[in-house]
Amino acid sequence: MALFTIGPILASLYLSFTEYSLVKPPEWLGLDNYRRMLEDPRLAKSLLVTVQYVFVSVPVQLGLALALALLLNRGVRGLSFYRSVYYLPSLLAGSVSIAILWRQIFGSDGLVNQVLALFGVEGVSWVAHPDFALGTLIVLNAWTFGAPMVIFLAGLRQIPVSYYEAAEVDGASTVRKFFHITLPLLTPIIFFNLVLQMIGAFQSFTQAFVVSGGQGGPADSTLLYTLYLYQRGFGSFDMGYASAMAWTLLVIIAALTGLNFLLAKRWVFYSG
């Protein structure tokens, strides 16, 4: 813990107040790195791209996970097999190989355009178009619904069947049972998945790095915050500035997580 976690954390905090190029000893700058961040247009752009990525992909991902968990909870034969298959993307999506595959699928001659061509639609190079490139990353993140799906499925199994039986006696429809029984009792699980997936989305890096060739293009449309941090730290050897960016990201994630916990009092319901 001290060697691999606490030590690097404290070192990066110190380096965030210095000018450090990896090859020369760090020189103390005080708050200069943080002041520079306020005047950095690419940092502002990376924050905007990251916020769009997180606040679109995470709800879509959780929606898909919940829908599939509801389907599997209905007693599908071979549940263990389907559960494993749907969980697999969560293990693979962060890999370089899947990111390369994704770049090929959404390329000018990729699978998406081949399917569109069957309907007489001429596609574009989705990963090379500034209006669609970020969307391909959002789809990739939404595809990793396996982990939250398994957690949703476990939560659904904990809801007493007697609640649904009582609702059926009262003549409740499937929709009413979902909104008045399933959804309220599942809110702690939704909250748990929301916090975990939001934190993970803010830290996404590999997909944007591979799909954009490490540049965050086209026109910085896929410049996630972590990718820009990598560019400054290991591309420009401005490790002091990169450390300041890392701590700023920590503060942003902590603030949003705290806000989630604060708002949870309004919509998360715990039984018993």
Primary descriptors:
272 residues, mainly alpha, two-stranded antiparallel ribbon, 13 helices
Please give a structural write-up.
It contains 13 helices and 2 strands, in the order αββαααααααααααα. It has 272 residues and is mainly alpha-helical. It has a two-stranded antiparallel sheet. Helix 3 (41-72) packs antiparallel against helix 10. The longest helix is centred in the first third of the chain and has 32 residues, at 41-72. It starts with a helix and ends in a 5-residue tail after the last helix. The model has no long low-confidence stretch (mean pLDDT 89).
What's the helix and strand layout?
Elements: H1 2-15, E1 18-19, E2 27-28, H2 32-38, H3 41-72, H4 79-92, H5 96-105, H6 111-118, H7 133-143, H8 146-157, H9 161-169, H10 174-202, H11 206-211, H12 225-235, H13 239-267
Antiparallel strand pairs: 1-2
